[in-house]
Amino acid sequence: MDKRCIIKKIFKIIVGTFILSFGIYNFYYQNGITEGGVLGLLLIFKNVLKVDVSISNILIDGGLILLGYRYFGKKFFANTIFATSIFSLIYGFYEKIGFLITIENNFIAALLGGICVGLGCGIIINAGGAAGGDDIVALIISSKLDKLSLGKVYLLTDISILILSLSYLPINTMIYSIIAVVTSGQVINIMYRFNTTIELVETKHNQIDEVAA
């Protein structure tokens, strides 16, 4: 892989992480909208089982990242470590400067947050990495089960975690969280399919050029 391609991937991951952390902080956190996936699972452990987030995060998210290394290789592992590290830095930056936008309508906040999270995760995935352990789980399941698209896997896993979150969250909060995860899942699926189509077209063009040469 040449330097230009590496720089392009790094740039994509940074942009995707900025969008992802912006949506989670300014829309989800500000309006009390919870997440599915690993983050939702960590919150369940914290609120129901009283397990410290820092401990459960290392065990769950760290374990899933290692699983991603096994299935997708060193480059994916490196990109994922980079993405998760940058996410922590950027999210901390947003916390220091405060909310950049205020949305008082929870429905609109759920939609905008879902779009931001979907765009951010989609860009990071298309750059060859993952924003967290739940992305890795979704990528593995969708690669093993052809009938399930990436968006459907996200939806199934996130909804499952959100249902479990009813053990400590009120139903009205859960409704907006479901809207958010459905939106983000659809956006990720659209971006993933679009990127796959482009890669197929580029591969065919390269094959034609090799034959012509």
From TrEMBL:
Keywords: Cell membrane, Membrane, Transmembrane, Transmembrane helix
Residues annotated as transmembrane: 10-28, 76-94, 106-132
Pfam families xref list: YitT_membrane
Membrane topology: Multi-pass membrane protein
Localization of this protein: Cell membrane
Location, primary (coarse class): membrane
PANTHER family noted in UniProt: UPF0750 MEMBRANE PROTEIN YITT-RELATED (PTHR33545), UPF0750 MEMBRANE PROTEIN YPJC (PTHR33545:SF10)
Protein name: YitT family protein
